[in-house]
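the two lines:
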Amino acid sequence: MSTAILPTDETLSEGEVYSIPARGATTSDVLSCEGIVSAISTWYDYVRPVRVRLHGFSPNAAMIETIEKLYSLTELQAGWNSYGARPIRSDVIRHVGRWVPRLFQATTPEPAVVPRVNGGLQLEWHHKGIDLEIYVESPESIRFQVEDLTSAETAEAPLIGNEELLRAWIARISD
Amino acid sequence: MAPPLRCQQEFPDDPDIQDGDQMLRRVPPKQIIFDQNMGRLRPSSATFEDDEDDSPMSMYRRTVIDATGGNIERVMVGHAGYGLAGLCAGELRSRNQTVHSNPLEDEPAHAEVCGRKTDSNRKFFYQRSVWVIAPP
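prediction for all of em together
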């Protein structure tokens, strides 16, 4: 990957990311690279803000909004839904934080990032006549359900072994 | 298909709850989404799940609140930013759920809805739900 992450202070609570555009690194590449993920993980563990400045990229704003919403779920305490829900699992948040940049395509719109009672979460798109929901109960247990409301075409599958099918549906809801 | 045996035995359906009776569930801010296909805010499918301690989904009987001279806003006290969604008991039953009255000491309208909350059931519930108190 043609990126370099330069901490702007000793704690990497801020970092700058540089790219050589000619080598073709994408925003997804940057946001999924280890330095960014570890910086965000540090934020979660120690409740410390992280600022990342990107140079040489055109970020997908929806992706960044999604990651911000994702990490906001760390604020939820037990009982956050008023009916005894669990806090959202930190390993789920971290896993989705790493996965989202690879999941998104250039024009993928922002999903709803919704916490679940069992400590998991779901990503939801209800866009362009398609309902797509991805359920993440643990890093190992991810599945999705999708319905085209116009054609009545549906799919329901675990992620493992069906990554291309999900990618095709993501393309259909992308603008 | 009937509700699961456990539900029939431990949370039997209450015949005093009419199909047309409205059942209420609080919706926390993080589970309120804008559905572009429907063109409105609505509860996420994640709203309609059983509690994590394996007890069935809690709801409130509007008829009991009304009959006791109460105001439905009493179930929203202390829950700023929430919405209150309503579904008819018959809609819940149509998806193989029992609607079981379970009054609490501090809330006689409390009830539990027992049955499998499959993806398709949860989708049915959000599609049929209406805002009784819209989110702010």
